[in-house]
Input
Amino acid sequence: MTPLLELETIAWRQGAREVLRSVTFSVQAGELLAIGAGADAGKSTLAQIIIGAREPSAGTVRFDGEPPRSQLGQPGGLQLARITFLPALGRTSLEQVAAPRSGVVSARRARDEAGEALRLTNATRLADQRPVDLHHDDRVRVGIAQAVMTRPRLLVLDEPLRGAEPSNRDELLMLLRLLRDRHAMTIVMTTSSIKGLGGWRIEDLADGVLEARAAAARAGGEVVHLPRRGTGS
Output
């Protein structure tokens, strides 16, 4: 079966420092992939490379056989769930979530779809609040709601679980599984903790290289404590 996402020998350098080197992996449609890494291991850089927002120093990325940039934000393409929001897109969470559909459908329909997306992520209560005023966990919910407006086949999240309260962490993981099971989304996320990730495929990023975690470790879901390496996050 042809993978939905393929990265081959990805490298990224910051000056003389090699943050990523020879990162190679593929993701099949319907997978849940967690990339575990410590601070400054390059996981945010890798997330940006996956979606095509940052060019690697070397290597290739393909989403459904094409460069990811051409399908970023497109219906049925790939999308990054953001937790920072551009003020120009709207003042409230509802307006921010509706933004990807603005100009594509009527304003009323965009708001209705945004309301549905907020309900899906259990964030209806946040509709009239400003994202900048929200706790991290709630910004993640709003960011996911905004991302799913384009019905992506691949959803990428950068550290969505960082600092989450245990109950919120469990709810967010349940939401991601729901998106996979009921909405046919493939999920790739970076994380500094793999606790509670039963059912996820887990890869460790350290020294700029990605390595599969053993099956026993995947089942246990222990916390990743990798050393700090160079630069990048």
User: Anything to note?
Assistant: The beta strands are 5-14, 17-27, 32-37, 58-63, 78-81, 154-158, 186-191, 201-206, 209-212.
